[in-house]
Specification:
Rossmann fold, eight-stranded mixed β-sheet, 9 helices
């Protein structure tokens, strides 16, 4: 079956993908040729979120749904600002975990875990017990391109609430999420390609995405297409991915 991580890897020009992933990507590109450009926008949004948190004094980062490693990675970005930054890469795909463990988890303070966002208690417990994250100190939780794979019945808001409740004041939350403003042809094609697979997508509204930041103060410009967070007058894309960054109030 197609894998969202491998499709994204292909869109970013990576080599860790298979024929099925490239076939799905090409059908998406036939409808929205700018999707490869959007993949770059999303990566730059991640970098901006990490820089923003690090500049604010955050020294711990959780990349939840990390995907196949692509430079610049979270630890590379954070450690330009704070060399002692700790980073944990988490993904439920065993192939992704293997890549993260082999390519990234080679230095003190950088770890990889195989775990599923749908099991927040398990993740939080492992982070605490393993001494990987000190939740008494601010942390940046990065959920880039993941929540739209969590179905409504799997309670994405409840998942985020569990993480929020253990995060210290001053912590950051960064999310990207597929928008219902996406071109209908793209939505139809993506749902046909991923139906009954782990890569099935739910396209949500700006209001639904905003609700995930309950307990966080949204930072301007708020919930907007990811490229609107970046410098320059960047073009709109047929696939619309919202980006948002919030900080937990004291």
């Amino acid at each position: 079956m197609p894998s969202s991580a491998r499709i994204y890897d292909y869109m970013l020009g990576g080599k860790d993908n298979y024929d099925i992933d490239r076939a799905v990507a090409h059908r998406m590109l036939a409808i929205a040729p700018d999707t490869k450009t959007l993949a770059w926008f999303i990566r730059q949004f991640l970098v901006k979120a990490v820089e923003m948190a690090a500049d604010a004094g955050v020294r711990q980062f959780i990349d939840l749904g990390a995907g196949i490693p692509t430079s610049p990675n979270v630890h590379e970005t954070a450690r330009k600002i704070e060399p002692s930054a700790r980073v944990v890469y988490i993904d439920n795909d065993p192939i992704v975990y293997t890549h993260c463990d082999a390519l990234l988890a080679r230095s003190p303070g950088v770890e990889a875990l195989q775990a599923d966002i749908r099991q927040p208690d398990d993740i939080i417990t492992r982070l605490k017990v393993g001494g990987l994250i000190d939740f008494n100190e601010p942390v940046a939780l990065l959920i880039i391109g993941v929540l739209h794979y969590v179905m409504d019945e799997e309670d994405p808001a409840g998942i985020l609430a569990e993480f929020r409740d253990v995060m210290a004041p001053g912590s950051f939350l960064a999310i990207t999420h597929a928008s219902g403003d996406t071109h209908p042809d793209f939505i139809g094609q993506s749902q046909e390609d991923t139906n009954n697979s782990p890569s099935q997508v739910v396209y949500r509204t700006r209001e639904e995405t905003t609700a995930y930041f309950d307990g966080f103060d949204l930072i301007d410009p708020g919930i907007v297409p990811a490229q609107d967070w970046l410098d320059g007058d960047l073009p709109a894309t047929r696939l619309v991915i919202y980006g948002g960054i919030g900080r937990k109030a004291g």
